[in-house]
Amino acid sequence: MKRFCMFFLCASAAATLIAATPFTVVEATIPEMRTAMEQGRVTSHELVLQYLTRIAMYEDRLHAAISVNRDALKEADERDRERAQGRIRGPLHGIPIALKDNMHTTNMPTTGGALAFDGFVPPYEATLTANLRDAGAIIIAKTGMTELANWVAGSPTPMPGNYNAVGGWGMNPYDPRRDPREPFFDGRPALQTGGSSSGIGTAASLWAANVGSETSGSILSPSNQNMLAGVKPTVGRISRYGIIPISADQDTAGPMAKSVTDAAILLGVLESPAPDPNDPATKTCTPPPGRDYTRFLNANGLRGARIGIPRAFYYDKTTPPGRKDARGGLNADQAKVMADAIAVLKQQGAVIIDPADIPSVVDPDPQHNLLLWNICSGATDAKGKDADCSVDFKYGMKRDFNKWLATLGPSAPVKSLTELRQWNITHTKAGAIRYGQSNLDVSDEMDLDADKARYEVDRAKDIALAGTHGIDEVMKAQRLDAILFPAANGAAIAARPGYPTVIVPFGTVPNAPTPPFPEGFNAKPSPFGVSFTGMACSEPRLLELAFAFEQATKRRVPPPGAP
Q1: Smallest Cα–Cα separation from 303: which of 554, 555, 548?
Q2: For residue 288, which of 521, 484, 538, 487 has the smallest C-alpha distance?
Q3: According to the model, what pLDDT value does residue 4 have?
Q4: Proportion of the chain above pLDDT 70, given as a percent
């Protein structure tokens, strides 16, 4: 009895201490926010106010947002009133989330970072925006991004990551200084932020989590560079209706968060309970019961899991058939991080299949080798120069961007890709196309009728090399649960067939660019995560593996200097 009373007093004292401690949003998880609101220790109004204060403090340095919701506090008050009445909309009730600025909101502009769309408020909301509101989320801001998801300027002057004409440069909170090297002294960050989505604000606790979009690496890359957990879902898992496109073949939205748990919660909210009639691809995967991905978060999930290590190209340099120069591979620091990660997997009971090379990466036939089949991009891959690359993006951009413009009705600032290019040229002095628009140019030169057969052949080859003769073949042959890629290095191969990946923060490597930084400029370390990739609709298993790895390591650290 005495022991029980002592325990009760200790527990009571601890509860009193917790209640007396002000709740802070810094590094707070979504479950912690939910619990604090349920216990009355914080309100949604207070969460939003804290985040708005942090935005005011750090935005000038980080450039994380293109726009901020002026009604965020009003919406928070509404969520608080609903909570007081016993009405909880869903798992994000009263929690502030940010959206990439290519996703429609009717209470804030949706610009895609393009100057032609500056201030444009679309006539309808994206399906995922509606899903977030239905779950009680407050859309607090629209994040920075690489303009039009990095399909504006390719060669000869490619647009750097996380730059756009509306908001300028995004800065990495792990080293928010500008690149001092003379060839790159145009305002870009010394430490890359990844692109085209932004993870800056989530990493710096300017909001709880954010939604990015990816065509080939644009969720995984910024998640990696900002030490976030990210989910690049199967194409079709989340509706793309109301998102500015590149190509419907590979476009998808997905969550970016400070933990796998937060990412899993957000993924379930973003996914619709039934297929979206505005996006036929949403029939591809079946949601889990209740759209609850947290049911798959098992700390012992790595036991017995078969994890493949694709050594060729992704870990070790590889020479494609008929070429003299080796490609890919990791440097010594990156290789050490991955060796440590593989050791953790073994300690947690995983079965490591090493090597588990991608068949199309090591295929001796040049026609069936993935390394010799890139995505056409920029002026160097204009018509007549594009025989050895896939036209999927440049064809898809013209097809799908024009379709998207048509959904905007008379309010659309431009009515076609051609009009956008002309507008950009007219407004060059205003900063519309600082790096040119070679990607838009090569897209607009496509003839959707005459070039359709070529596009279909290329699309089939994309799926064959990356999927059928790539990820599918090795996973089936080795009976793999997942393939382990370093950082975001496997994003492109998984993106072509539309396969999912979950990335987890893990280590850091030196930021040592070529040419090097000038003497006296001490670069900060660059985050370097690990990615679990699988075949279509395998998000539940990938989340289980990623969560188990995260719980065994817990290597994420907040950015310095942003308390």
Answers
A1: 548
A2: 538
A3: 35
A4: 96
Q: Using 50, 70 and 90 to split pLDDT, how confident is the model at 21?
A: confident
In a domain, 562, yes or no: no
> Within a domain: residue 15?
no
Query: Residue 471 gets which letter from DSSP?
Result: I
Among 205, 213, 216, 218, the one annotated catalytic: 218
Residue 9 pLDDT > 80 = no
Residues 92-106 have a mean pLDDT of 98
- Residue 558 located in a structural domain: no
Structure tokens at 282: 């949403």
d(CA 237, CA 282): 6
Of the candidates 51, 47, 28, 503, the residue with the CA atom closest to the CA atom of residue 256: 503
Query: Does the annotation mark 476 as catalytic?
Result: no
174-200 pLDDT, tens per residue?
999 999 999 999 999 999 999 999 999
Helix axes 260-270, 539-553, angle to 10 degrees: 160
d(CA 252, CA 288): 18
Buried b (16+ CB within 10 A) or exposed e, 297-319: beeebbeebebbbbbbbbbeebe
Q: What confidence score (pLDDT) does residue 562 get?
A: 55
- Find the domain containing 264 and state its range: 23-516+523-553
CA separation for the pair 360, 497 (Å, rounded): 14
Q: Per the structure block, which two tokens stand in for 431?
A: 């900063």
pLDDT over threshold 80, residue 270: yes
Residue 418: closest CA among 437, 441, 434, 439? 441
Give the pairing of strands 482-486 and 306-308: parallel
In one-letter notation, the amino acid at residue 332 is A
CATH number at residue 401: 3.90.1300.10
Catalytic residue, chosen from 100, 142, 394, 398, is 100
Is 196 considered catalytic here?
A: yes
Task: Give dist(CA 223, CA 246) in Å, integer.
Answer: 20
Length of the chain, in residues: 563
Residue 563 predicted with pLDDT over 80: no
pLDDT of 319 > 50? The answer is: yes
CA distance 408 to 123: 6
Whether 12 is a known active-site residue: answer no
Helices 44-62 and 72-84 pack at an angle, to 10 degrees, of: 160
How many independent structural domains does the chain possess?
Answer: 1
Q: At residue 521, does pLDDT exceed 90?
A: yes
Q: Look at residue 132 in the predicted model and tell me its pLDDT.
A: 99
What's the pLDDT score for residue 385?
A: 96
- Strand 138-143 versus strand 65-68 pairing type: antiparallel
Q: Which residues pair with 97 in a beta bridge?
A: 139, 209
Terminal alpha carbon distance of the chain: 44
**Which member of 196, 205, 213, 360 is catalytic?**
196
Q: Quick check: is 134 in a domain?
A: yes
Classify each residue of 469-487 as buried b or exposed e, where b means 16 or more C-beta atoms within 10 Å of its C-beta: bbbbebbeebebbbbbbbb
